[in-house]
Amino acid sequence: MNFETLDLDDDTLTFWREARAFFDEHVTPAVLEDERLHGGGFNEGLHLAMGARGWVATQWPTSEGGAGLDAVRARIVATEWARSGAPYILASTTLLPPIAIRMFGSPDIQAEVLPRVADGTVRICLGYTEPDCGSDLAAVRTRAERDGDEWVINGQKMFTTGAQFSQYCFLLTRTDPSAPMHKGLTVFLLPLDTAGVEIRPIGTLGGERTNFVYLQDVRVNDRWRLGEVNAGWTVVAAPLSQEHGISADGSDPTIGGPYLAECEKLIAEFVRWAAMQPGPAGKSLLDDAAVAERVGEALVKVEMTRSASGPPARILSSDLLVQTASELIDLIGPTALLARGSRGSAGDGAFEAGFRFAPGTGIYGGSTDVARNVIAERFLGLPRSTPRRNKNERNDSPVR
């Protein structure tokens, strides 16, 4: 953890004020209410406004449509975005496939897609998980068969969050069933308006929407293939590493930021609620030393976790949100479990909603168990958590 402080110059502080004002303007009560009701993880108006500033891809060069920000200013934008409570999931996943598009896409595909990602008009969902393979990504069964200059794809993906708002799917398919698991895969950037693609919603415990994507005799031109045939594991390696917090350039993707912001929102809501509740000696519950101590401990843990990076940040932020949501309910009592709109609900359902949302964060973007495997295998050099399935399977594949 890095606890070093930064002295920000006047220009950077001015930028910070501008960033806060931007999100205060665009993240309206209507935006937040829509996300609460539908859980889509995306707001097009906000996304396009960010794209107009280059803030969809804050550190991409201006020549590619990004803002060309340094790490500090990019972190400021990310911090204010998380603080605002705005939906963020699809905007985050959209930036993963361009890593592979730059490395493996043709110049035509790069020129067609990347500028539109930067300006916000193109979003990309991740076509990884299938009903029978879960986190075992190499076990995908969605089949792609070559037919001249086209491929015919049949199969099913699930947990393709944001597909209903996306123009493309970063799709992992199996093109050689006879090859070893990691060597018979091919990746396509599939236009989602292609005939044979059907998107159906999945509701989650946390009130979010994700999707099934059904693929029936979907024909896609070979120009949309990324990388070599049967070399798809190499294509997904860099985006997977970024998703798990292993950045190739050593930068901090701050993957735990939104979860920490959620912790802070729950704590702030508790402070408001407790200040109105009767406590000892005619004072408020917030004046109870034991209550104040637990609130202080939670805030200290948030700040400590914010100093982490990479896979540890992924684990710590999710675990802390689960712990915080549970501890606040323990402090409040049964009324914390009443949903929004219920009579007597503490915080008008904020704690109930936070408690439902928290467990899912241990799964998103590869589970925290996967992140622990990454730490063990990549950083500590420990043996694989699971043995190789056959002698042809390499031992240096990305952990999923």
TrEMBL record:
The Swiss-Prot or TrEMBL record annotates one GO molecular function as: flavin adenine dinucleotide binding
Q: Flavoprotein: is it a keyword of this entry? A: yes
Annotated Acyl-CoA dehydrogenase/oxidase N-terminal domain residues: 11-120
Alphabetically list the UniProt keywords. FAD, Flavoprotein, Oxidoreductase
Q: Where would I find the Acyl-CoA oxidase/dehydrogenase middle domain in this sequence?
A: 125-210
Show which residues constitute the signal peptide.
none
- The answer on whether this UniProt entry bears the keyword Oxidoreductase reads yes
Q: Which SUPFAM superfamilies match?
A: Acyl-CoA dehydrogenase C-terminal domain-like, Acyl-CoA dehydrogenase NM domain-like
Residues forming the Acyl-CoA dehydrogenase/oxidase C-terminal domain are: 259-379
- Pfam family example for this protein? Acyl-CoA_dh_1
Q: Name one GO cellular component term.
A: plasma membrane
Reaction catalysed by this chain? a 2,3-saturated acyl-CoA + A = a 2,3-dehydroacyl-CoA + AH2
Cofactors, names only: FAD
Q: What family is this?
A: Belongs to the acyl-CoA dehydrogenase family.
According to UniProt, the name of this protein is Acyl-CoA dehydrogenase
Q: Which organism is it from?
A: Mycobacterium paraffinicum
